[in-house]
Amino acid sequence: MNNCIEDIKKSSIRKEKISLLTYPFSDPSPIPEFGRLYPYNRFDGYTAKGTEQVWEIIVMENDFIKLWINPSVGGKIWGAIEKSTGKEFIYFNHVAKFRDVAMRGPWTSGGMEINMGIIGHSPSCSSPVDYHMRQNDDGGVSCFIGATDWPSRTEWRVEITLPHHTAYFTTNCWWYNNSCMQQSYYQWNNVGVKVAGNLEYIYPGYQRLGHDGKSLSWPIDDKAHNLSFYEQNNHGEYKSYHVFGSYSDFWGCYWHDDNFGLGHAAAYDDKPGKKIWIWGLSRYGMIWEDLLTDHDGQYAEVQSGRLFNQSVSLSSKTPFKHRSFLPYTYDTWNEYWFPVKGIGGLTYGNHLFSFTIAEENGKRTINICANQPLNHTLKILHHTNEVLTKSISLIPMQTVSYTLPVDLNLNAIKILLNDEVFYNAAEQNEPLKRPTEIVANYDFNSVQAIGIQAKEWERQRFFERAIDKYKSCLEKDPYYMMALTGLAGIYFKQMKYEDALALLLTALSIDTYDGESNYLYGLVNLRLNDITNAKDGFSIASQSVEYRAASYLELAKIFV
After folding, report:
1. Distance CA 540, CA 524 (A)
2. Residue 521: exposed, middle, or buried by beta-carbon count in 10 A (0-12, 13-18, 19+)?
3. φ and ψ at 270, to 5 degrees?
4. Within 13 Å, how many C-alpha atoms sit on residue 169's CB side?
5. pTM score, two decimals?
6. Degrees (nearest 5) of the Cα angle 135, 81, 113?
7. CB within 8 Å of 106: residues ≥ 6 apart
8. Which burial class, exposed, middle or buried, applies to 417 when counting CB atoms under 10 A from its CB (0-12, 13-18, 19+)?
9. pLDDT of 73-122, one tens digit each?
């Protein structure tokens, strides 16, 4: 590693032919999967015998880290290492062992998998995706990957960027709903990490949510297990923890035996979801070590998400519902991924540096590992009192330690770089008041509850179930707006335009300005070739912020 900022070389990007022992899967079924996976088909044949296969891999590296991207397997970041130690901060699987795990079947473990669509693992996770390599003017490099999710017609792109002067890389994601209707909204990045080495999950929060939305304590469970340590999860079956309850823009992992870790940072509004997946430490879960790899050992997954949990149907009876992706709308977010070394643990990190506060032999220190060149003034405040001021000059992955007073309340410290707040312990550690349970007297048989359940089924693409629930709503209240528009939207998708129109005329007789009703009214009339009434519907819908962009786009099509 270079010891001077001026000596740092530009990042490089190239293609390499890399041979991996590969356990392939069959040709696809000729019959598509009718239902929520349509028009995709499945792959149902797998093998226990591997053969050497050469894969074209994109390799990105700078003086500090190196990563591999496989465009033929969903654009997965196949692995990443910190170069001075050679240690993996993202698990590199040295075989491509496809198993029937994903929506279409085949899936491989390790690396970083990017999922956008309805549930994981997305249809493109083991299929080739488009890619483009670029040398950036600032000395960094980028690899763009992307594909279309055909059931929803949404399009996604990810720019994986490795600056030349940092020990982090970024994933900048775009997702566009290229359809005239609401679509299901699901986005999680799944990152494989090895479990050997006294692994600790550093996940700020006080509760853990299940897929069913139920909340339990974190990190200590009711049997006094500290679940933040991998080895203390040696009970029961697989583990799936969505950690919740802290306004934090960070999570990470640390292998204490290796004095090495992984950090992730993203704005809270970009990525509020953080999840841990563990196969299970009993035979129940450990069989997957042999099923998914040959010699690389067991792994776990750490995940970042756009929502708080990966909800299933039971989650609908909690505050943690599904979300809709509005028509013709676009989302984008950015994340930082970085290694940590030599600091004895991990408290917090972002694109600037990672740190921990350690206590040993009656002495307290703050240990810092830089993630980019630093030439800053570091200040630490305890309440409002300044307890440390240092000028720091570090290159990426360089470490430094400073002594702190032993009587500090660690929940009352604030760290500043050049007088800008870097870390606010009080904010990071304050439990959120956001509810995790629906109020006790909520009536799940009410028309509202049935309507919400219908919308939940619709967002999961279980349309027949949604129709039944919407009809149940209208039996209770023939003029319930959510059911009128919800059922009309599904009828539109099923090309039952006259049935949809009747529902929408009823809705507009109740509220002539309702944005969703007017937008759907415009779509239905357009399909019925009633252009005047279509323009009327879109025009009034454009007054709604939610449907403004989609309405203007549909009007533009008509006028063109």
Report:
1. 15
2. buried
3. -80, -45
4. 31
5. 0.95
6. 75
7. 25, 43, 46, 98, 99, 100, 126
8. middle
9. 999 999 999 999 999 999 999 999 999 999 899 999 999 999 998 877 88
